[in-house]
Amino acid sequence: MEWKQLFSPQRAGQSPVVASEQSRSAFEQDYDRIIFSQPFRRLQDKTQVHPLPEYDFVHTRLTHSLEVSSVGRSLGKRVGEDLLKRHPELAKEFSLYDLGSIVAAASLAHDLGNPPFGHAGEDAISDFFLCHAQGQQFKVHVTEAEWCDLTKFEGNAQGFRILNKNQYGLKLTYATLGAFTKYPCPALFPGRDKSKRSQKKFGFFQSEKDIFHAVAGQLGLVATSDISWNRHPLAFLVEAADDICYSIIDLEDGCSLGLVGYDEARALFENVLTKNKSKLGKLDEINGQQEKIGYLRALAIGDLMGECATLFLEHEQEILHGSFDTALVDKCPSYQALEEIIKVSVEKIYRARKVVEIEAAGHEVLPGLLEEFSKAGMYLMEGRKSRKYENLQKLFPAEIEVAIRTEKNVYNMLRLVIDFVSGLTDRHALSLYRRIKGISF
């Protein structure tokens, strides 16, 4: 892979452009388009760890995404500074701020495809097609690859779909779309090798496979089979930014909520520190416990960013050749300390009673919504009459109702229904379920 091609500022369906204009680069425009988009605004009421948080210091998907983007921008700039020195020909067209902007934009969008109720919501949508009688009936109407999409809902693939839906008008650059795609392969992939990080999950549905083929071709991504590719190198930085933030900041939230004691959290954070250990003396000058944890979090993130940037630069050629295929945090010196944080988080934060209760509700709410709205979609697509389902059809957003009305393909209809249900916020999904089931008015 070649860096100049990988930094393509081209947008699908538009004339060739240069990376920068007078005031904003093409990649800065990507960031702005995402942050003003409707799917991004919905993240303010979507679960990060603790669903429907009652406290303003607990992270939602929106605050998490903003923080991941901030870390991603710093990683991109750190790496970019060295890359431009190694490859001075790139400096004629790009700056370290361009690299920072690509990673920041892709990081900002990394959770756009997440449904209500977090990862439990992904499982609940999949379970509707796997386990519910209504969902299983659709199997005879779709191909094997399409059925694999439906039974393995994946937030990363849904995010790629959202970024390329005409209704949002995002039209992101190929560079940002490439950096966004951590798993450049489909759901149905017989040759999948899960020891490779890029094949652990999947990054696009059958409905967007042609779009991703075009992205891969434009960027010069190396194909590993006729349906899979090596990652865009900057996807490793997007992944690292997310890994750093969720492991470190989830622990901070757990401490704020009283699920992890201060002394235990402090010890876990201190174990991560390498270069910043010398700054621990400042803790004695900070009075509040929450402020102390915030300071430790900042030190830990700073050290982890340095380690990941160094690793990326050390393995640059392997990454470009596709022979490096593991998460950066899994190779960094603080890996064991991070593993201990994740272990404690699983035991004390992710399995906390409130989390489990709300996730259990998600497994009831989302299949319940899909049962009713998939029927409504079928009736609408086939022009069948039913007072009940005609009422439900009116609850679809206008653009989805129009698209389903003209659709002839069951898989595409179901994708539109899933777009609607997975795009709901946690509270909206819960209140809509109660209303259509007659539990509340």
TrEMBL record:
Coiled coil: none annotated. Keywords: Hydrolase. Residues 57-256 form the HD/PDEase domain. Gene3D superfamilies: eoxyguanosinetriphosphate triphosphohydrolase domain-like (1.10.3550.10), Hypothetical protein af1432 (1.10.3210.10), putative deoxyguanosinetriphosphate triphosphohydrolase like domain (1.10.3410.10). One of its GO terms (biological process) is dGTP catabolic process. The keyword Oxidoreductase does not apply. InterPro entries: dGTP_triP_hydro_central_sf, dGTP_triphosphohydrolase_C, dGTPase, dGTPase-like, HD/PDEase_dom, HD_domain, PHydrolase_assoc_dom. GO terms for molecular function: dGTPase activity. The keyword Hydrolase applies. It comes from the Bacteria. This is Deoxyguanosinetriphosphate triphosphohydrolase. It comes from Dawidia soli.
